[in-house]
Design a protein that fits this description.
42% helix, alpha/beta, eight-stranded mixed beta sheet, 18 helices, globular, 409 residues
Length: 409
């Protein structure tokens, strides 16, 4: 059989196997058996990696990229594994901001395809194996590993990190993780390992005891960043929600300095926070796409994240507000739509993935909350119309889903 090129390799990875992105609940596997199987098959590359493990409902992507940027500024070779990607699969696996090569992806799948098929590994499981193999071969100094979903049963949870980080808990992916804050906190707390310090970004009265009890059980030192860090430095990631993430990052760096031989100066921290986008290539976090009218896109897509984004939106000055909005069908619009402002013109659209929410359904649900607007055939059409309609002192917000932002970028 001839070797597959990059696009064929990707098509195989996406289509061959159940995948949470396109299929939702049926693709979520509730154990680590397959990941462990693959890791053993690859010779356990994860055992040779130094890692920081990052979980949480919101902010784990920004936090992971900030940590990577700070460590890059300190002169380290930093692996970064995140998900989902916005434009290209290779965004998920980077070293010092540079994406994994197409060749490496093709070679890895080519070499292991028989094994992957035979054991029906999921898209996410094979991606984790690929990342660990890549970081090992490229001899990274440290790796920032972002949890895909949950924590306890997430494919990334075969590592023993230097530090574990949990940014916060909100109600998201409830069909997989449980529908109370305590239940979700329990899943995320599953990344707390024996004697490995854990940093908690934000907590509530429901989630704090869950974290504390797991840390006690694992004899792990626990640090609540929001209580321990008062001063933060400015960052090029400008969303209001980054204030919490910065505290989490500063506390994680502090723990790393106290418990390992890594050397990170205050200047490295300052520079790292200022240069996240340059150092890591992060996109879609309160990202400005234009001025006059001001255009902002943001990947916030659940109640917790959207509340913060919309509060920030309310601080902006504009004549008229235009909102390009799309969602996926496993979110509950009734929880999310009340957050959005009524005094805006809406452009409803469906992202091009199979679990995109039909724009007509979205429009109908939105009108129940006093949000009025028209339906468009695609995200790009909705966006073009908003740009067309907006005058120079208006404001355009694009969001509701990571996938909507991906189509605009």
């Amino acid at each position: 059989m001839t070797a597959m090129n990059y696009q064929e390799t990707l098509n195989w990875m996406f289509s061959q196997l159940p995948m949470y992105q396109t299929q939702g609940a049926s693709a979520y596997k509730k154990d680590l058996t397959n990941t462990i199987l693959l890791a053993n098959h690859l010779g356990n590359p994860e055992k040779d990696l130094k890692c920081i493990h990052v979980a949480g409902t919101n902010g784990k992507g920004s936090t992971s990229h900030m940590l990577a940027s700070v460590l890059q500024e300190a002169g380290y070779k930093v692996g970064l594994y995140t998900s989902p990607h916005l434009k290209d699969y290779r965004e998920r696996i980077k070293i010092n901001g540079k994406e994994i090569s197409k060749q490496f992806v093709c070679d890895f799948i080519g070499a292991n395809k028989g094994f992957l098929e035979q054991n029906s590994l999921s898209f996410f499981e094979m991606s984790v194996g690929l990342a660990f193999q890549y970081f090992k071969e490229k001899k990274t100094d440290i790796n920032i590993i972002e949890v895909g979903m949950g924590g306890r049963l997430d494919s990334t949870n075969i590592i023993t990190p230097l530090v574990s980080v949990i940014t916060n808990i909100g109600l998201d992916h409830t069909q997989f993780l449980g529908n109370t804050l305590e239940a979700i906190a329990f899943e995320k707390a599953g990344i707390i390992k024996r004697n490995v310090p854990v940093v908690i970004g934000e907590y509530t009265s429901e989630t704090r005891p869950v974290f504390q009890s797991k840390a006690d059980e694992m004899q792990s030192d626990i640090y609540f960043a929001s209580e321990l860090i008062s001063e933060v430095y400015p960052s090029d990631l400008i969303g209001d929600y980054q204030e919490h993430n910065k505290k989490t990052v500063l506390q994680a760096v502090k723990v790393l300095l106290e418990t390992t031989s890594f050397q990170i100066s205050e200047e490295n921290v300052k520079q790292g926070l200022q240069k996240v986008v340059i150092n890591t290539g992060l996109q879609g976090r309160w990202q400005q796409l234009g001025a006059n009218p001001k255009i902002i896109c943001d990947t916030a897509h659940n109640e917790h994240g959207l509340k913060i984004a919309i509060n920030q939106l309310k601080k902006e000055k504009f004549a008229e507000l235009h909102i390009v909005l799309g969602m996926v069908n496993d979110k509950k619009p009734k929880d999310i739509l009340p957050i959005f402002p009524k005094n805006a013109k809406y452009y409803f659209c469906k992202p091009i993935i199979s679990r995109g929410l039909d724009a007509l359904v979205l429009q109908k649900e939105a009108s129940e909350f006093g949000l009025e607007g028209k339906i468009y055939n695609s995200v790009s059409e909705a966006y073009a119309k908003a740009v067309d309609n907006a005058s120079s002192d208006d404001f355009i917000y694009v969001g509701g889903s990571t996938f909507v932002v991906a189509e605009i970028l």
